[in-house]
Amino acid sequence: GGSKITSELIDAFKEKTGVSLRVGYGMSEILCITVNKSESRDKLASVGKPTKDVEVQLVDDEVCVKGPNLMLGYWREAPQSGWFRTGDLASCDADGFYWFKGRKKLLIVREGYNVSPIWIEEVLLKHPAVEQAAVIGQPDPSEGEVPVAFVTLNQDVAEKGIQDFIRPCLKPWEMPVK
Fold first, then answer.
1. What parts of the chain have a pLDDT lower than 50?
2. Nearest-CA neighbor of 51 among 16, 85, 27, 76?
3. pLDDT value of residue 74
4. Residue 144's beta-bridge partner residues?
5. What is the pLDDT of residue 114?
6. What does the pLDDT read at residue 152?
7. Angle 75-68-82 (CA atoms, 0-180°, nearest 5)?
8. Radius of gyration (Cα) for the chain, nearest Å?
9. For residue 79, what pLDDT is reported?
10. 113, 173 Cβ separation under 8 angstroms
């Protein structure tokens, strides 16, 4: 736990163990928020739907939760109106399934655009030569921050080949500079 899980990792785990993983989402402050009980392939990496008695709403893509399993508050700060702002980002599809997108604090702000390092990593990992990927924000005097990608390759490939592969999937401000 602690981060987004990909469909590829779920598939690899099942292939090696014969066990299907169930993805969920929670945190120390509110425990189990969502669980994915779907058998549908297109919902595989979703964190699922809210658990019993838990309410979830998205405020500017940030997950806000309310429920009987919510902590009372930190030493000096209680959740506003019973809602706890998690600092996590998500989206919700038409079927009510939530999709973890990353942490608000980890966003890269490039020329005023919010850029998700996790999204760029997902796109990079679709390239057959990319074994591992990590994206961080690097300070930039004219753009604020720019995404920089670090990849581990399982075969030789030119940097331009990877850039050409990911370009159709990313917006111009999401493209890593390195």
1. none
2. 27
3. 73
4. 110, 140
5. 87
6. 92
7. 55
8. 18
9. 67
10. yes
pTM above 0.70, yes or no: no
Beta bridge partners of 35: 24, 49
Contact predicate 136/173, CB 8 Å: no
33 phi and psi angles, rounded to 5 deg: -95, -50
3-state SS, one letter per residue, for the chain: CCCCCCHHHHHHHHHHHCCCCCCEEEECCCEEEEECCCCCHHHCCCCEEECCCCEEEEECCEEEEECCCCCCCCCCCCCECCEEEEEEEEEECCCCCEEEEEEHHHCEEECCEEECHHHHHHHHHCCCCEEEEEEEEEEECCCEEEEEEEEEECCCCCHHHHHHHHHHHCCHHHCCCC
pLDDT at site 149: 94
For residue 12 the two structure tokens come to 């690899």
